Amino acid sequence: MSETTEPGSPRVGGIVLGSTDPRRLWEWYRDVFAPGLTWDGAEDGGPVRHLRLGGTYVVFEARDDVGRKSVEPGRVLVNVEVTGIRDMERRLNAQLNPRWIRPIETVDEHMLLGTLEDPDGNYVQLCDTTDDGTPA
C-alpha cells in the first residue's frame, strides 16, 4: 500500500475529525493505536488535539457544526495500516469492546482487513499485509 511520490507533489498531511468531544475521541484513538501515550499538556483543555500515526496527523477538533454521531459514517473511512492485526483485535476486544462493522477477514491472499466504529460513529478500517504477500 505504500507508494513513493515525486518531490513537490501533493500529499495528505493529515485528517481532521470534527467532534463535540475531541478529548474523548483522541483518547479512543490513542487507546487503539498508541496505548500508554499520555497527553503532554501543551494545550490541555483546548479545542484541538492530535496523534501522529506514521507520517500523517489525525487531528481531533472541537466543532459546533457537527452532531455527536456521524450521519454517514461510510462516506469517509479512516484507513490505518497496522501489523499484528489479530493481536490488535484481541487487545481491542478485551479492553475497549469496540463495535466491529466488518470483522477482520482475509480479503485476498495479501491482506487482512477489518472495520470498527469510533465513539463518534466514524468508520476506522484496519489493514494488515506482510512483506512476503501473505496475511499476517
In short:
The chain contains two helices and seven strands. By secondary structure, the chain is α/β, with parallel strands linked by helices.
> In what range is the share of β-strand residues?
25-35%
Strand/helix succession: EHEEEHEEE
* Main β sheet profile: 4 strands, mixed
Give helix % range: 10-25%
Q: Write down how many β-strands occur, each being a DSSP E stretch of 2 or more residues.
A: 7
Give me the oligomer status. single chain
Mean pLDDT: 86
Number of helices: 2
Indicate the overall shape.
globular
Terminal residue distance? 15 Å
Q: Please mark out the parts with pLDDT under 50 across 5 or more consecutive residues, or reply none.
A: none
Radius of gyration: 16 Å
Can you give a write-up of this model?
With 136 residues, this protein is α/β, with parallel strands linked by helices. It contains 2 helices and 7 strands; from the N terminus they run βαβββαβββ. A 4-stranded mixed beta sheet has the order 4-7-6-5, with helices on one face. A 3-stranded mixed beta sheet has the order 1-3-2, covered by helices on one side. A hairpin with a 2-residue loop joins β5 (99-108) and β6. The longest helix is centred in the N-terminal third of the chain and has 12 residues, at 22-33. The two termini are 15 Å apart. The mean pLDDT is 86.
Question: What are its keywords?
Answer:
three-stranded mixed beta sheet; alpha/beta; 17% helix; 136 residues; four-stranded mixed beta sheet
Topology:
Layout: E1 14-19, H1 22-33, E2 48-53, E3 56-62, E4 77-81, H2 85-95, E5 99-108, E6 111-117, E7 123-128
Parallel strand pairs: 1-3, 4-7
Antiparallel strand pairs: 2-3, 5-6, 6-7
